[in-house]
Write a structure and sequence with these properties.
alpha/beta, D-Maltodextrin-Binding Protein, domain 2, six-stranded mixed beta sheet, five-stranded mixed beta sheet, 12 helices, 14% strand
Length: 362
């Protein structure tokens, strides 16, 4: 069956939510007239600046773009299901949709984190280009197909930071023995460097850092991190987020629910996700810049990750890509595509963005 959303460019989706260009052989028409309400669970505290706000805006936009025929009720993390069980909830029908991040599904699909971010991987713009223009969406759809789930990009927290620490990091030896809250493939890097990765939902990080359960924690970017109170419990803030250079959030929908929607409502869902991804990325760029300035002025010591940590982390990251690719044929295809996108856009970036920024700063 052809997925009508996959035939739409991002511009066409946003500009013409009703023009899906698909065949008429879609699954059962769940809606002819009237209103249907979908339950959306999230991995975020309610209205968390960044992803929590994106979830609410996606829900509102679906209602608007569908002319009120499709309404979405949002449940924050823990209200209906725990933060890290949103994928299961959509798969088994406990919820119809979720707003979350692919980085959490490593245990189910080794290559899933690449659809959020990966160490030394794609930047926010590069990631969006890979998904929209270089085959990433088709691979993402294929990866989730066996679970009966359809994914969309639906928000972005932009570049992430490497994390908050309650003691300074001068060399890679300072990581040895530290307990660090971290998600995604970066956890494997810190483990190799001698730290102890600790997984926990975003909502629990403040208390864990305050009480000493962890010595450090990576979250998102300055805007979201400030809203979570991190400057109150840690003095040192490190960047760049080599472990998470991008912050793509996903909206996922139960495939049976999605296929049962008329074509125009499928397009409304796709359009709502696309417009939120663009809006959130722009907003995060500005808010992160403002917040980083405020953190410095407020006494937070914003530091660069020591060079020897970056030097040690990069070959570990490349090894992780190899390990993922060796797991199964689909993972190999995804890693190959991701690496090719990184190489192609990295080469262009060297001659455009990188060289321009050096000139602008000189």
């Amino acid at each position: 069956m052809t997925d009508p959303a996959s035939k739409l460019t991002r511009r066409a989706i946003i500009g013409a939510a009703a023009a899906a260009g698909a065949t008429g052989a879609l699954a059962r028409p769940a809606i002819a007239q009237g209103t249907q309400t979908l339950r959306m669970v999230t991995s975020w505290p309610k209205n968390l600046p960044g992803p929590g706000v994106s979830a609410e805006r996606v829900a509102a936009a679906i209602g608007q773009l569908s002319g009120g025929r499709l309404q979405v009720k949002v449940f924050a993390a823990g209200e209906l299901v725990p933060a890290l069980e949103t994928f299961d909830a959509v798969q088994n029908g406990t919820a119809d949709m979720a707003h979350t991040a692919a980085i959490y599904w490593t245990g189910k699909m080794p290559s899933a984190p690449l659809f959020t971010t990966a160490p030394f991987g794609l930047t926010p713009r590069e990631h969006m280009t890979w998904i929209d223009a270089a085959g990433g969406q088709a691979l993402w759809d294929e990866l989730y197909a066996d679970f009966g789930v359809k994914p969309f990009m639906a928000g972005n927290t932009e570049f992430n930071m490497a994390g908050w620490y309650n003691r300074p990091l001068e060399t890679k030896e300072d990581l040895v023995g530290l307990k660090v809250r971290i998600v995604g493939l970066g956890a494997d890097i810190l483990r190799e460097l001698g730290a102890t990765p600790v997984g926990m939902p975003t909502s629990e990080v403040f208390g864990a850092l305050q009480s000493g359960v962890v010595d450090g924690a990576e979250l998102l970017g300055p805007y979201s991190d400030t809203s979570l109170g991190m400057p109150k419990v840690a003095k040192f803030y490190y960047g760049p987020g080599f472990n998470k250079p991008n912050g793509t959030g996903e909206a996922i929908i139960n495939r049976g629910v999605y296929d049962a929607l008329p074509v125009d409502l499928q397009a409304a869902v796709a359009a709502a996700c696309a417009q939120e991804h663009a809006r959130a990325l722009s907003e995060a760029g500005w808010r992160n810049a403002e917040s980083l300035k405020a953190l410095r002025e407020g006494g937070t010591e914003v530091r660069l990750v020591p060079a020897d940590i970056l030097a040690a982390a990069e070959p570990i990251a490349n090894g992780l890509y190899d390990t993922i690719a060796a797991r199964d044929p689909l993972s190999a295809k995804i890693v190959e595509s991701y690496r090719q996108a990184r190489a192609t856009m990295g080469d262009w970036g060297t001659y455009s963005i990188q060289s321009f920024l050096r000139a602008r700063l000189s």
